[in-house]
Write a structure and sequence with these properties.
heterodimer; A: mainly alpha; de novo design (two linked rop proteins); 6 helices; 0% strand; elongated; B: alpha+beta; 2 domains; 9 helices; 45% helix; globular
Chain lengths: 185, 263
């Protein structure tokens, strides 16, 4: 009888340790996937000055659109340095997406801009970066989903770390999704 | 005395037990003949389909070494061989080969006075192999069983996607999780759920799709067509930037000693 009891306690301890380790792994995965998003967002922000410079040569009258892109980049940079909340970041980066979409849309009104090789290269780079951001975002959200689910479900919630907190998803706003459709034709 | 002699002797002896033994012998023979006929029909159907669709049949002996280095087998397997192979015309870059292969495994079944006994089991599988010039990240996708659920809970290489149905059906293991999730977009997930392969592996620029060679009325050519479709669906799902990143990593001499991202 004692052996049975000892065995049961041992089994519970092993399961507890395995679940706790899973929390630790997930926290590490969440941080790593978040830094993946961060890198790609920074890469996208770095494309803005070049894009604005290229467009300026053809569409000088679109000053407002270009300034909006520069301003969105500046805000995103500030938030990146000050605030690490995913919801705030998502909102600011949404603004960058919309500004970039407006700049890209200028090529429809300026055929010479559309024919510019440098602009086409930047557009291609931008599309790839958006794809990378989307993949990083999906990975981060997948990790968040597992983290939240494990921390709230029974019996795994009993093994969660003391500082466990519900994590927020990095959601793309509906308008961002439209902005991702960049025309490369 | 051979088993056949024993059966005949039992039958000559007359009576119930003799007839019973003879009946059992007949049943075993009938099952064996039925299996042989079914296998022949499967082969004929497969060869006819291959000929009608311009598949170039390959000599199994000549491709065994090349393909068996890519095809998954169990640990301790032996007598691994490709039993049938054909090159399938494809519009995509690279070569697409469908094949049947088999291997044997030995399982210990206790010991007797004369020494340890073991049972030999033959595994028969059907596969499609796409050899792509593009670089691909290492990724493995398996149909989930009880073992898969345990691995899923314990491994740090497990990737979960948005679809609960997909996560329930498949176990996805990858070192580069972002590339894996990029490949498994909604369309590829849908196709994989529909085609339901047993095992999909991406390694060294090859896409290998494997299934048991006896699957719900899909024997022969239809099964090979389905496996080739999985290969193409997966290849279609690989974004250019993923191949580019993998190629860059491979070109980096320090790629295998790279520190993980700071946590």
């Amino acid at each position: 009888m004692e052996w049975l009891l000892l065995g049961a306690v041992g089994l519970v301890l092993v399961l507890w340790a395995a679940t706790y380790n899973r929390f630790v792994r997930l926290r590490s995965a969440m941080r790593s996937s978040w830094s993946g998003i961060d890198v790609e967002l920074a890469r996208r922000a770095d494309l803005i000055p070049n894009l604005v410079e290229t467009v300026k040569g053809y569409a000088e009258h679109e000053r407002e659109t270009l300034e909006r892109a520069v301003e969105a980049r500046r805000s995103a940079e500030q938030v990146r340095q000050q605030d690490d909340e995913t919801e705030t970041r998502a909102a600011v980066e949404g603004e960058v997406s919309r500004a970039l979409a407006s700049v890209s849309a200028l090529s429809e009104s300026y055929p010479q801009l559309k024919a510019d090789g440098r602009f086409a290269d930047l557009q291609r780079e931008l599309a790839t970066t958006e794809d990378r951001i989307a993949a990083s975002r999906r990975l981060f959200n997948s990790n968040v989903k597992q983290w939240n689910r494990l921390g709230q479900s029974i019996p795994t919630r009993f093994a969660r770390p003391r500082d466990w907190q519900r994590a927020s998803y990095f959601e793309a706003e509906p308008s961002d999704r439209a902005a991702l459709d960049i025309d490369l034709s | 005395m051979t088993p056949l002699h024993s059966v005949l002797a039992a039958a000559e002896g007359g009576g119930g037990p003799g007839l019973l033994v003879l009946g059992m012998f007949g049943l075993v023979a009938a099952v064996a003949v039925f299996g042989w006929l079914r296998e022949r029909q499967r082969r004929q159907q497969r060869d006819a389909y291959a000929a009608a669709n311009g598949w170039e049949q390959l000599h199994p002996g000549r491709v065994t070494n090349e393909l068996m280095s890519l095809l998954p087998t169990s640990s301790g397997s032996f007598r691994e061989r490709v039993t049938w192979a054909a090159r399938v015309p494809t519009e995509r870059e690279g070569t697409l080969i469908v094949c049947d292969y088999s291997y044997k495994t030995r399982k210990s079944s206790g010991s007797s006075r004369s020494g340890s006994r073991s049972k030999t089991r033959t595994h028969r599988k059907a596969a499609a192999v796409h050899r792509s010039p593009a670089s691909l990240p290492a990724l493995e996708l398996r149909r989930k069983g009880l073992f898969g659920s345990i691995v899923s809970a314990l491994s740090s290489r497990t990737v979960e996607v948005e679809s609960a149905a997909f996560n329930k059906r498949f176990l996805v293991l990858a070192k580069d999780q972002r590339s894996a999730i990029a490949i498994l977009d909604a369309r590829t997930q849908e196709r994989l759920l529909e085609l339901d392969p047993e095992d999909v592996q991406l390694k060294w620029g090859n896409i290998v799709v494997v299934d048991s060679s006896r699957r719900k009325g899909e024997d022969g050519a239809p099964q090979h067509v389905a496996l080739a479709a999985v290969c193409e669906a997966v290849q279609e799902g690989v974004p250019d930037w993923v191949s580019h990143d993998v190629a860059e990593d491979a070109a980096d001499p320090d790629w295998n000693v790279k520190e993980p991202d700071a946590v």
